[in-house]
Amino acid sequence: MSSRIFPVAAFVLALVVGLVTPGVVVAKPGTPISPKVLEAVFIHYEHPAKGKPTPTPEDKVYDYYLLLGPMWDLSQYPAGVPYVINPTGAPVGAELEVKAAFEAWDAATSAELFGDSPVIDGNSWWGREDGKNNVSWQVIPDGRVIAGTWIWYFDNDGSGTMTTGDVIKETDIVFNASQKWGIDADGEGTTYKLSRMYDVRNIGTHEVGHVVGLDDIYESKYSEITMYGYSSKGETKKISLAIGDIDGTAALYGQ
Ligand SMILES: [Zn+2]
Predict the structure, then answer these.
(1) Whole domain around residue 200: which residue ranges?
(2) Most-buried pick from 21, 107, 111, 217 (CB within 10 A)?
(3) DSSP letter string over 55-117?
(4) CATH code at 107?
(5) 2 in a domain, yes or no?
(6) CA dist 145 → 12, 187, 198, 206 (Å)
(7) What is the Å distance from ligand 1's center to 226 Cα?
(8) Count of CB atoms within 10 A of residue 34's CB?
(9) How much distance in Å is there from the Cα of 7 to the middle of ligand 1?
(10) Cα 246 to averaged position of ligand 1 atoms, centre (Å)
(11) How far apart are the first and last CA of the chain?
């Protein structure tokens, strides 16, 4: 079982943010930003076994999930949790793909989880607690990094870590703009194949899973589940949620 927080990568990202956004200081994971609000970072990597022979086939498991602990208090968001998309540096049409990624999770619960009308804002950036749940593209020099999700949460029990009963305050998703990104421009759906680039909706759906409150799972038998923690170029299977992804959402917000 792997920890959800990658301190080294987060530190590198913090440096990156410091370079590209002068004056903004991003705390390391676990560092209090304001009383009882903590930050955690989830980094999504390309699969480390890329190019190696496929191991012996194994039975895949589809009905597994891990909760981070914190969740949204939906009573504060009667129209769903709002979010902001900054399309600067994204492929044309990415806003609709990001919206579809959020809606995939919203469909997994009868609760109104996310707002239906994201704001498009070219001045909304990631990695800082600014009251906006934003999605943006930014250059991250580490070529292994595909994307990442920041979560700020109220550490209600004062445990210093994510636990059940904590409440999400804000989240930011960043796509690494130094990667090649593409979208399913003409909507072929299941026959769609994007080679040599990452699919925005595929990666976006995984990242939004963290915003929902789900953790990465890394064992290869879970590789068909959206919250499997690795991806590769051309992959589209994370677009459709697996049973475990849906069960995890329902465990937090009801069926
Ligand atoms: Zn992840």
Answers:
(1) 7-253
(2) 217
(3) --------S---B-S-B--GGG-TT-B--EE--TTSPTTHHHHHHHHHHHHHTTSSS--B-SS
(4) 3.40.390.10
(5) no
(6) 11, 27, 12, 14
(7) 9
(8) 10
(9) 14
(10) 16
(11) 27
- Give the total number of structural domains in the chain: 1
* CA of 239 relative to ligand 1 center, distance in Å: 14
Measured in Å, residue 182 CA sits from the centre of ligand 1 at 19
In a domain, 1, yes or no: no
Range 82-107 average pLDDT: 96
In this prediction, residues 105-134 reach a mean pLDDT of 93
The reply to whether 172 falls in a domain is yes
Rg for the chain (alpha carbons), in Å?
17
Q: What is the pLDDT of residue 126?
A: 81
Distance, CA 43 to ligand 1 centroid (Å)? 6
Place of tokens 């999400």: 168
Which residue is it, tokens 């870590």?
161
Q: Which residues of 4-15 are buried (b: 16+ CB within 10 A; e: fewer)?
A: bbbeebbebbbe
Which pLDDT value is given to residue 178?
A: 94
Q: How far is the CA of 105 from the centre of ligand 1 (A)?
A: 15
Q: What's the pLDDT at 189?
A: 60
**What mean pLDDT do residues 65-94 have?**
97
Cα–Cα dist 247/81, whole Å: 20
Q: Which residues lie closer than 8 Å to 79 by C-beta, 6 or more apart? A: 112, 115, 116
pLDDT greater than 80 at residue 171: yes
CA of 60 to the centre of ligand 1 (A): 19
Residue that wins the pLDDT comparison between 73 and 17: 73
Quote the ligand 1 centre to 229 CA distance (angstroms).
5
> Mean pLDDT over residues 18-41, rounded?
52
CA–centroid distance, residue 65 to ligand 1 (Å) = 12
